[in-house]
Amino acid sequence: MRMEAGTLVSLEVAREVPPNGYFLTDGSQDVLLPYGEIVGTIKPGERVDVFLFHDTQDRITATMKRPHLILGEVALLEVVDIHPRFGYFLEMGLGRNLLLPYKHVPELETLRPQVGDKIYVTLAHDRQGRLIAKLATEEDLAPLCVRAPSSWKNQWVEARVYKPLQMGTFVVCDAGVLGFGIIGLIAAPERTRLLRVGETVKARIAFVREEDGRVNLSMRLRKEKGMDEDATRILSFLKERPNGAMPYSDQTSADLISDRFGMSKAAFKRAMGKLMKEGLIYQKENWTYLKQADASEASFAPQNSKETQG
């Protein structure tokens, strides 16, 4: 059987070859175990468990050090460096780093990991047979993940991004003593910003799916609490505006509301409804005013302002 980089194998110590190390054998092939890769002491005739990798000259080499990841596994590895041409270097536990090429990360810069982030990856070979990392997929993670208890609804958990998409961000939620993690989705309207691969975020479990125990999450507060917070934000914004007037109303586009206030249009409308019900604001001609701003309304009509809704 061909010796393959990325695997753990048990081999016999065949002979010492100073000043390099020891040759190990499976009976048909030999591989060098350099002195610097030995843990403890060994002697010819013994069997040792080693990890196979390529050295700097692309030769299969053995080490008795244990890596954080082998072929067929998923591991959470830390980004320790970023190369402008090649990609991301990950700490592998061997005194050398594992490359995650740029082609295996999102094209959008803001979705890519940063130094210090930890990302779920698998081990693979490039075209030359050298070891590289790839981002773990749902197919890789699903067998390791567990179901969320229904009692977790509305609890806040820590989630780590493994796949950012425009329609939503897929994450693995910390499952604590339950196991590896729980697969979840933060839909785009439930995000307060874009999330990058490897980033951790606090999110609220909004729904637990009965069929598979996966969860839908939100970075926002529950509607009742969120409405109070959003209303306070809008009120503060109005109080800082000239004469307490702003060119935003229920008719403002969702994109503009998100950019200006960091909330969805539905959340904006709920908060505005709360403020109007409490008699704190009113709307006219797609503008919103504080009640005490009535007298100045005319001077801040949309046609006289340079600020538009776009």
Automatic annotation (TrEMBL):
Entry GO MF terms: nucleic acid binding
Designated name of the protein: RNA-binding protein
Superkingdom in the source lineage: Bacteria
Entry's family note: Belongs to the CvfB family.
PANTHER family per UniProt: CONSERVED VIRULENCE FACTOR B
One protein family per Pfam: CvfB_1st
S1 motif domain boundaries: 154-220
InterPro entries the record matches: CvfB_fam, CvfB_S1_2nd, CvfB_S1_3rd, CvfB_S1_st, CvfB_WH, NA-bd_OB-fold, S1_domain, WH-like_DNA-bd_sf
Annotated organism of origin: Paenibacillus sedimenti
